[in-house]
Amino acid sequence: MATMYEMIMDLPLFKGVGKDQVSLFLEKTNIGFQNYTPGEIMADLGDPVRMVRFVISGEISLVHPLSEAGITVEEQTGFGKVLGADRLFGLATGYPYKAVAVTPTSIMEFSKEQYVNLLHSDRIYMLNFFNYLSLRAQRPVDSTMTYCRGNIDSRLAQLLSIMTEPAAHHVVVKGTEDALARYCSASQQQVREWKERMETRNLIRYDSDTIWILSRRQFLDTVK
């Protein structure tokens, strides 16, 4: 079983740090731990981000609503997921999703102020944070350039590429065929035919208002 040191060293914002650095972090940082039961809301859409939070055990679902389009994207993820780090600064400082515990889940957290102090304490923390932010800043541009054909494939691939993480599993798109047709600038008949074709290719499963993406990576690679 991984020790506390090993667990922290595996977290994305701590990659490359040594045990001495983790010891110093634990000594100087007031760390909190929160436990959640299945179905419990961990963060709601628009809640202010005041803490850096990490999933250290369990599985969570992130629900991304596109309210004006009548579409919701959901993704499931687990250990190492960072909640809130990309919303600590800037004009938008509220959670852009609802986070819900899927299984019994534990969160490690510490304040924004303590994280700023950590960034100043060692260059490796700052580099990890820059890399984390850069990946999220570059993804929308790369996605738009890659999925630019304007058809249903590209519209939904771009949506998944931007809204969900590479490590996400159990990715689901919810919306009526009418909502999907409007979002993709297509007819409802074209959406139905697209669903049938993608299910035949073993990329999705679907019902009247839900599309289950069987593999995010395979889906995105296939529709390029």
Features:
224 residues, alpha+beta, 7-stranded antiparallel beta sheet, 4-stranded antiparallel beta sheet, elongated
In words, what does this structure look like?
With 224 residues, the protein is an alpha+beta fold. Helix content is 40%, strand content 25%. The chain has a 7-stranded antiparallel β-sheet. The relative contact order is 0.15.
Short description:
The protein has 224 residues and is α+β, with helices and mostly antiparallel strands. 40% of the residues lie in helices and 25% in strands.
What's the number of extended β-strand segments?
A: 11
Q: What would you call the structural class?
A: alpha+beta
User: Numbering strands along the chain, what is their spatial order in the largest sheet?
Assistant: 2-7-4-5-9-11-10
Query: What is the overall silhouette?
Result: elongated
Query: What does the average pLDDT come to?
Result: 94
Q: Enumerate how many helices there are, as a single number.
A: 8
The largest β sheet comes out as: 7 strands, antiparallel
N- to C-terminal distance = 40 Å
* Strand percentage: 15-25%
Show unreliable segments: none
Amount of helix? 25-40%
Please write the string of helix (H) and strand (E) elements: HHEEEEEEEEHHHEHHEEH
- Rg over CA atoms, rounded to whole Å, is 19 Å
Q: Which SSEs are present, and which pair or pack?
A:
Blueprint: H1 4-9, H2 19-28, E1 32-36, E2 41-43, E3 51-57, E4 60-66, E5 71-77, E6 82-83, E7 98-101, E8 105-111, H3 112-121, H4 123-146, H5 152-163, E9 169-174, H6 177-183, H7 188-200, E10 204-206, E11 210-213, H8 216-222
Helix pairs in contact: 3-4, 4-5, 6-7
